[in-house]
Amino acid sequence: MIKRMLCLGVLSAVALSACGQSGEERVVNVYTARHYSSDDFVYANFTEATGIEVNVISAGGDLLIERVRADGDRSPADVIVTVDAARLYRAEQAGLFAPTDFSQLAGTLPANMMDPQGHWIAFAGRARVIAYSTERVDPSELSGYEDLADPRWEGRLCMRSSDNAYNQSLLASIIAHRGEDFAESWATGVANNLARPPSGGDTDQITAIAAGECDAALVNHYYYARLARSENPDDQAVATAVDLFFPGDSEFGTHVNVSGAGIAANAPHPAEAREFIAYMLSDDAQQAFAELTNEFPVTGFDGYDNALVRDYVSIRQDSINLGELGEHTETAQRIFDRSGWP
Amino acid sequence: MKVDPVPLAGLAALAAATPLVAVAVLAATGPLDGYLAHIARTRLGDYLLTSAIVSLTAAILSGLIGVTTAWLVARCEFAGRSTLQWALALPLAVPAYVAAYAWLDLSQAAGPVAAMLRDAGFDGVAAALPAIRGPFGAGLIFAVTLYPYIYLLAREAFSGQSADTYDAARTLGHGPVSAFLKAALPMARPAIAAGMALVVMESLADYGAVSHLGAPTLTVGIVRAWAGAGALADAARLAIVLAAIALLLFSLERAQRRRARSSAGSGRRKPPRRIRLAGWAAAGAMAVCLFPLLAGLVLPMARMVWLAFEAELARGLFAAFRHSAILASLSGLFAAALGLGTAYAVRNRSRLARISARVASLGYAAPGAVAAVGVIAVLSFIQTGLDSLWGGRFPVLLTGTVLALLFAYLSRFAAAAIGPCESALERVTPALDGAARTLGEGPLGVLRRVHWPLVSGGAITAGLIVFVEVLKELPATMILRPFNFDTLAVVAHNFAADERLGQAGAPSVLLVLTALVPMIYVARKIVKESAIEELG
Fold first, then answer.
1. DSSP string spanning B160-208?
2. How close is the nearest chain A Cα to the Cα of B475, in Å?
3. What ipTM does the predicted assembly reach?
4. Digit-coded pLDDT (tens) for B189-199
5. Taking CB atoms and an 8 Å cut-off, how many pairs form between chains A and B?
6. Architecture of A2-125+257-310 per CATH?
7. pTM score of the predicted model
């Protein structure tokens, strides 16, 4: 009786379920925190090249981690992609990744861009850098992240909320390089220099600089690159009024966060998952990241059509292993909580 | 024959309570690592203060807007009234986060209005332009998008009220305003209180709008504890605090309702006569009614349309529309049935039902992301049970099915369905039942010929509110949906998260239009029904 009822339940659930998984075709199930429409283009090319269909669920990294954790050994996830090193670390700590030998894929990848135990590998980077007003700031007065805590910036900074994962990872790297005490005085100093309480995203901070509300902000490079490469005259006007400063030679180099992927511990299609991750590091995919989303390719920049980002990539980057940032993220947030950076 | 609606109430309570129970278990069993003490020392005070400012601003402004407009269209006659009386419900179709994106974009120093002023040489004016951000800005956004909750319920109440009390007050020398305050308003108080509870609840549980506008409420703190610090158990503990606040609010609303019921009169009902306004009074009434429509619907949507034209069109919009429509209609239907069942059960004075209804209300209080985590935990628990009953892997994985989504939606929005149904059912006095039975109707006849005409408006409103809520819902949809199953809200969110407001424009506008179509239909139907009632 119970079995029959369950059968009925199954039938209705299958009928209601929109996901019809049929036949013997090769598939890979990707849980991704990336939400860029250009990724559809990359997936379509992957399917064309390999014959493997890509099933996608996109959601915030933390929700993805909870779902994979709750589904346990029944999880259909093959590949888990996050857009932030701290989330890769958290997924790894939760035991969601199967250790994998990525050495064949590593190629020209910088050593800090993959987990030493093979839990994850990065495939695209984003620099968090200083956007400044070309009108009111002389680039020679910029030296790096640490300088933004100086009182001469008082009332001149626009910042996104400290809820933001990229701000947290930047602070985590400052903790790693300079210790907690320094990081706390830095965060407090920056919070004291804010021109207005945080609101909006990175692009809103850039346009606020152009509109004269403040003189400098911390932003991910690709939001500026998008405005600079836009054909819209309003965007171009903003891009002319604002430029980016990369703290390359000063301090610890430019802080770069990553999109990275790992193979799920209970992946039903591990072979396909490997192929998928290999494809993310292929020339085709790397070109799409460089040209469509203005991200940093991780395997070099040969022959890609994006002069602006090519220049950015050549600037010295922080060489800290990204996994280490994850270890400091919790501390980073507690420091933010105390610093008064909303 | 006796129809027993208590099981339905129990079902609603079960659906709504289980995710919260999961959250409570999480809160009770998770590790204590000092995060709560840390947050209490640092930001908790700010979170609570911001929450208070946001929800009070939202409640006061939406109350003013909702009650004033409801009174004007229900009891006054002026040009445009018959259109306005359904159009005023429409801003409910606009997700608060979309309105927040549009209004911040419109009002900030880098926005089009300030740019236009600067081009015209009014630099000083441009600099003084107040940007809609921070706690008061967020409260304003909630007021102009959520006031229809109050408007809809108050309009029902005002046009269902007998004119006798109001007339009596006028005869006793009260002016129209004073008669309104002394006679009409107190009688509409349960409806207004129910609407306000929804407004406060929704603004407290919102994440998208407040985080964009920089108004860190307790919900932002909960998500931050979980997402930033990885302290899921502590996030759950903070969520329990929010649920407790909700419980308090709902019991206050209950008390209001009881007091109002005991003071409500009975007997012959004289249809209300509308006061004819002319000249400046009519123009003023029209302006008062147009303001919330412009602020909540027309201006933000016009901005999104404008932005959408500047950007390239996203692909997959039709599929996303279809998915959104399916999910929203199914949930709307289920929720209306559950809401009506619960309301009846409560009316029958079943103790179990009353507790169920209160518990069901709680689903509304948890922030979406936390509720989604609760739902995931519950589904995983059920899955384990199914697997062991089946003696192996049960053929269906619950997460990632439409069923899972429906469960999540019902758990979250049962309260939105129960409120309007109860409100409508209060118009059906026990004396009415008795009268119909005396005249020879059977129980089902009473239900069909007396109750249904009176409560259908409430049930439809309930279904409609849930339909619109589900269209707008994000976190549960994102994490529980099947593979490759984008909805309009998901597509709009993805572009907005990528700071491509232009491309978020098309799916947002489509989402609002999807919500508008059934809403216009239903709003007009409700209006027409009460017009017929008045004639008959």
1. HS-HHHHHHHHHTT--HHHHIIIIIHHHHHHHHHHHHHHHHHHHHH--H
2. 8
3. 0.88
4. 888 888 898 89
5. 176
6. 3-Layer(aba) Sandwich (3.40)
7. 0.89
